[in-house]
Write a structure and sequence with these properties.
The protein is 40% helix and 15% strand. The protein has 10 helices and 9 strands. With 255 residues, it is of the alpha/beta class. The protein starts with a strand and ends in a 7-residue tail after the last helix. Specifically methylates guanosine-37 in various tRNAs. Belongs to the RNA methyltransferase TrmD family. Keywords: Cytoplasm, Methyltransferase, S-adenosyl-L-methionine, Transferase, tRNA processing.
Protein backbone atom coordinates (compact mmCIF):
# COMPACT_ATOMS: atom_id res chain seq x y z
CA UNK A 1 0.00 0.00 0.00
CA UNK A 2 1.13 3.55 -0.71
CA UNK A 3 0.07 6.62 1.26
CA UNK A 4 0.93 10.11 -0.02
CA UNK A 5 0.64 12.92 2.50
CA UNK A 6 0.30 16.58 1.55
CA UNK A 7 1.68 18.47 4.52
CA UNK A 8 3.66 21.54 5.58
CA UNK A 9 5.51 19.32 8.08
CA UNK A 10 6.82 16.34 6.10
CA UNK A 11 9.52 15.51 8.66
CA UNK A 12 6.88 14.85 11.31
CA UNK A 13 5.04 12.41 9.04
CA UNK A 14 8.24 10.65 7.97
CA UNK A 15 9.46 10.24 11.54
CA UNK A 16 6.08 8.95 12.69
CA UNK A 17 5.99 6.42 9.87
CA UNK A 18 9.39 5.03 10.86
CA UNK A 19 8.27 3.90 14.33
CA UNK A 20 6.99 0.56 15.62
CA UNK A 21 4.67 -1.60 13.57
CA UNK A 22 4.30 0.97 10.80
CA UNK A 23 8.06 1.31 10.50
CA UNK A 24 8.33 -2.46 10.25
CA UNK A 25 5.67 -2.49 7.53
CA UNK A 26 7.76 0.03 5.61
CA UNK A 27 10.95 -1.99 6.05
CA UNK A 28 9.18 -5.09 4.76
CA UNK A 29 7.89 -3.28 1.71
CA UNK A 30 4.28 -3.62 2.82
CA UNK A 31 3.61 0.11 2.90
CA UNK A 32 5.21 3.20 1.44
CA UNK A 33 4.68 6.71 2.83
CA UNK A 34 5.59 9.70 0.67
CA UNK A 35 5.31 13.39 1.64
CA UNK A 36 4.54 16.43 -0.45
CA UNK A 37 5.05 19.98 0.79
CA UNK A 38 2.76 22.68 -0.69
CA UNK A 39 5.51 25.26 -0.17
CA UNK A 40 7.46 23.55 -2.93
CA UNK A 41 4.62 24.49 -5.29
CA UNK A 42 4.18 28.12 -4.25
CA UNK A 43 5.04 30.53 -7.04
CA UNK A 44 6.01 33.69 -5.14
CA UNK A 45 9.40 34.54 -3.63
CA UNK A 46 8.13 33.97 -0.10
CA UNK A 47 6.75 30.47 -0.86
CA UNK A 48 3.45 31.63 0.58
CA UNK A 49 0.76 29.05 1.18
CA UNK A 50 -1.81 31.04 3.19
CA UNK A 51 -3.74 34.30 3.23
CA UNK A 52 -6.40 36.12 5.24
CA UNK A 53 -9.99 34.84 4.94
CA UNK A 54 -12.65 36.94 3.25
CA UNK A 55 -15.19 38.29 5.72
CA UNK A 56 -12.59 38.90 8.39
CA UNK A 57 -11.91 36.92 11.51
CA UNK A 58 -8.81 35.45 13.12
CA UNK A 59 -6.39 33.06 11.50
CA UNK A 60 -5.30 32.32 7.96
CA UNK A 61 -6.51 29.96 5.23
CA UNK A 62 -4.40 27.76 3.00
CA UNK A 63 -4.35 28.96 -0.60
CA UNK A 64 -5.84 27.01 -3.50
CA UNK A 65 -3.07 27.02 -6.09
CA UNK A 66 -0.09 25.63 -4.10
CA UNK A 67 -2.29 22.86 -2.72
CA UNK A 68 -3.81 22.09 -6.09
CA UNK A 69 -0.41 21.82 -7.77
CA UNK A 70 0.90 19.72 -4.90
CA UNK A 71 -2.07 17.33 -5.12
CA UNK A 72 -1.59 17.01 -8.87
CA UNK A 73 2.05 16.01 -8.37
CA UNK A 74 1.10 13.50 -5.68
CA UNK A 75 -1.53 11.92 -7.93
CA UNK A 76 0.96 11.50 -10.77
CA UNK A 77 3.61 9.90 -8.56
CA UNK A 78 2.09 6.43 -8.85
CA UNK A 79 -0.18 4.74 -11.39
CA UNK A 80 -2.86 3.57 -8.93
CA UNK A 81 -5.85 5.89 -8.49
CA UNK A 82 -6.14 7.28 -4.98
CA UNK A 83 -8.94 9.03 -3.08
CA UNK A 84 -7.98 12.37 -1.57
CA UNK A 85 -8.91 12.40 2.12
CA UNK A 86 -8.90 15.70 3.97
CA UNK A 87 -8.27 15.42 7.72
CA UNK A 88 -10.95 17.65 9.20
CA UNK A 89 -13.04 17.82 12.42
CA UNK A 90 -16.05 18.19 10.12
CA UNK A 91 -15.50 14.83 8.45
CA UNK A 92 -16.78 11.32 9.02
CA UNK A 93 -15.62 9.87 12.34
CA UNK A 94 -12.77 7.40 11.96
CA UNK A 95 -13.78 3.92 13.15
CA UNK A 96 -12.15 0.52 12.96
CA UNK A 97 -14.58 -0.41 10.19
CA UNK A 98 -13.46 2.62 8.21
CA UNK A 99 -9.81 1.78 8.88
CA UNK A 100 -10.35 -1.69 7.41
CA UNK A 101 -11.94 -0.18 4.32
CA UNK A 102 -8.98 2.15 3.84
CA UNK A 103 -6.46 -0.60 4.51
CA UNK A 104 -7.89 -2.62 1.62
CA UNK A 105 -7.13 0.14 -0.89
CA UNK A 106 -3.88 0.15 -2.88
CA UNK A 107 -3.29 3.84 -2.29
CA UNK A 108 -4.44 6.93 -0.34
CA UNK A 109 -3.68 10.63 -0.48
CA UNK A 110 -4.03 12.39 2.88
CA UNK A 111 -4.43 16.16 2.85
CA UNK A 112 -3.36 17.97 6.02
CA UNK A 113 -4.78 21.43 6.64
CA UNK A 114 -3.27 24.10 8.86
CA UNK A 115 -4.28 27.45 10.31
CA UNK A 116 -8.06 27.90 9.97
CA UNK A 117 -8.25 25.27 7.24
CA UNK A 118 -8.37 25.22 3.46
CA UNK A 119 -10.22 27.35 0.93
CA UNK A 120 -13.59 25.65 0.53
CA UNK A 121 -13.37 25.75 -3.26
CA UNK A 122 -10.41 23.38 -3.18
CA UNK A 123 -12.22 21.06 -0.77
CA UNK A 124 -15.25 20.98 -3.07
CA UNK A 125 -13.28 20.30 -6.24
CA UNK A 126 -10.31 18.17 -5.15
CA UNK A 127 -11.30 16.27 -2.00
CA UNK A 128 -13.12 12.93 -2.19
CA UNK A 129 -13.97 12.69 1.51
CA UNK A 130 -13.27 14.32 4.85
CA UNK A 131 -12.20 12.30 7.86
CA UNK A 132 -12.18 13.21 11.54
CA UNK A 133 -10.20 11.47 14.29
CA UNK A 134 -12.46 12.86 17.02
CA UNK A 135 -14.68 15.66 18.22
CA UNK A 136 -11.90 18.08 19.05
CA UNK A 137 -9.69 20.54 17.18
CA UNK A 138 -5.97 20.10 16.50
CA UNK A 139 -3.48 22.63 15.17
CA UNK A 140 -3.33 20.78 11.88
CA UNK A 141 -4.03 17.54 10.10
CA UNK A 142 -0.64 15.93 10.66
CA UNK A 143 -1.54 14.16 13.90
CA UNK A 144 -4.72 12.88 12.28
CA UNK A 145 -2.75 11.66 9.28
CA UNK A 146 -0.28 9.88 11.55
CA UNK A 147 -3.21 8.15 13.27
CA UNK A 148 -4.62 7.00 9.93
CA UNK A 149 -1.21 5.76 8.77
CA UNK A 150 -0.67 3.80 11.98
CA UNK A 151 -4.17 2.30 12.04
CA UNK A 152 -4.04 1.34 8.35
CA UNK A 153 -0.41 0.23 8.39
CA UNK A 154 -0.82 -2.32 11.17
CA UNK A 155 -3.55 -4.04 9.15
CA UNK A 156 -1.28 -4.68 6.18
CA UNK A 157 -0.72 -8.42 5.88
CA UNK A 158 2.61 -9.28 7.49
CA UNK A 159 2.96 -6.05 9.50
CA UNK A 160 2.14 -7.70 12.83
CA UNK A 161 4.15 -10.57 14.27
CA UNK A 162 0.88 -12.41 14.93
CA UNK A 163 -1.95 -11.91 12.44
CA UNK A 164 -4.52 -12.68 15.16
CA UNK A 165 -3.44 -9.59 17.10
CA UNK A 166 -5.50 -7.36 14.82
CA UNK A 167 -8.61 -9.53 15.02
CA UNK A 168 -8.56 -9.36 18.81
CA UNK A 169 -8.31 -5.57 19.01
CA UNK A 170 -10.97 -3.35 20.49
CA UNK A 171 -13.80 -2.49 18.06
CA UNK A 172 -13.02 -5.33 15.63
CA UNK A 173 -16.26 -7.10 16.57
CA UNK A 174 -18.02 -4.04 17.95
CA UNK A 175 -16.75 -4.59 21.50
CA UNK A 176 -13.91 -3.28 23.61
CA UNK A 177 -11.01 -5.63 24.23
CA UNK A 178 -10.78 -7.82 27.33
CA UNK A 179 -8.13 -7.14 30.02
CA UNK A 180 -4.68 -8.73 29.61
CA UNK A 181 -2.05 -9.90 32.11
CA UNK A 182 1.58 -11.00 32.05
CA UNK A 183 4.23 -12.07 34.57
CA UNK A 184 4.54 -12.11 37.53
CA UNK A 185 1.48 -14.07 38.64
CA UNK A 186 1.56 -12.59 42.12
CA UNK A 187 2.12 -8.87 42.61
CA UNK A 188 1.29 -6.31 45.26
CA UNK A 189 -1.19 -4.84 42.77
CA UNK A 190 -3.06 -8.13 42.41
CA UNK A 191 -3.05 -11.69 41.06
CA UNK A 192 -3.51 -12.92 37.50
CA UNK A 193 -6.99 -14.50 37.17
CA UNK A 194 -6.81 -18.24 37.71
CA UNK A 195 -8.66 -19.08 34.49
CA UNK A 196 -5.84 -17.55 32.42
CA UNK A 197 -3.40 -19.94 34.10
CA UNK A 198 -5.62 -23.00 33.77
CA UNK A 199 -4.58 -24.15 30.30
CA UNK A 200 -8.27 -24.67 29.50
CA UNK A 201 -8.51 -22.86 26.18
CA UNK A 202 -12.30 -23.06 25.98
CA UNK A 203 -12.66 -21.58 29.46
CA UNK A 204 -10.14 -18.86 28.62
CA UNK A 205 -12.05 -17.98 25.45
CA UNK A 206 -15.32 -17.75 27.40
CA UNK A 207 -13.71 -15.58 30.09
CA UNK A 208 -12.20 -13.22 27.53
CA UNK A 209 -15.48 -12.92 25.66
CA UNK A 210 -17.36 -12.24 28.89
CA UNK A 211 -14.83 -9.63 29.95
CA UNK A 212 -15.06 -7.91 26.57
CA UNK A 213 -18.85 -7.83 26.83
CA UNK A 214 -18.73 -6.61 30.41
CA UNK A 215 -16.12 -3.95 29.80
CA UNK A 216 -18.13 -2.64 26.86
CA UNK A 217 -21.28 -2.56 29.03
CA UNK A 218 -19.43 -0.61 31.71
CA UNK A 219 -17.49 1.82 29.53
CA UNK A 220 -19.22 2.08 26.15
CA UNK A 221 -22.84 0.90 26.42
CA UNK A 222 -23.52 2.80 23.20
CA UNK A 223 -21.50 0.15 21.34
CA UNK A 224 -23.69 -2.66 22.69
CA UNK A 225 -26.76 -0.86 21.38
CA UNK A 226 -25.36 -1.13 17.85
CA UNK A 227 -24.81 -4.88 17.74
CA UNK A 228 -27.01 -7.96 18.03
CA UNK A 229 -25.81 -10.34 20.73
CA UNK A 230 -26.23 -14.08 20.46
CA UNK A 231 -28.00 -15.96 23.24
CA UNK A 232 -24.61 -17.18 24.46
CA UNK A 233 -23.29 -13.60 24.60
CA UNK A 234 -26.42 -12.42 26.37
CA UNK A 235 -25.94 -15.12 29.02
CA UNK A 236 -22.29 -14.19 29.50
CA UNK A 237 -23.15 -10.51 29.82
CA UNK A 238 -25.96 -11.16 32.27
CA UNK A 239 -23.65 -13.25 34.46
CA UNK A 240 -21.07 -10.47 34.35
CA UNK A 241 -23.71 -7.90 35.32
CA UNK A 242 -24.90 -10.01 38.25
CA UNK A 243 -21.38 -10.47 39.58
CA UNK A 244 -20.50 -6.82 39.10
CA UNK A 245 -23.62 -5.50 40.78
CA UNK A 246 -23.29 -8.03 43.59
CA UNK A 247 -19.85 -6.62 44.37
CA UNK A 248 -21.42 -3.17 44.58
CA UNK A 249 -24.20 -4.47 46.79
CA UNK A 250 -26.87 -3.65 44.23
CA UNK A 251 -29.72 -5.80 43.04
CA UNK A 252 -29.42 -6.53 39.33
CA UNK A 253 -32.24 -5.30 37.15
CA UNK A 254 -33.58 -7.07 34.08
CA UNK A 255 -31.53 -6.35 30.94
Amino acid sequence: MRIDVVTLFPDFIRQSAELGVVGRAGERGLMQVACWNPRDYATDNYRRVDDRPFGGGPGMLMLIDPLRACLAAARQAAPEPAPVIYLSPQGERLTQRKVRQLAALPRLILLCGRYEGIDERLVASEVDEELSVGDYVLSGGELGAAIVIDAVGRLQEGALHHAESATQDSFEDGLLDCPHYTRPVEHELGTVPEVLRSGDHAAIARWRRQQALGRTWLRRPDLLARISLSKADQALLEAFRRDWLAKLGEKPSKP
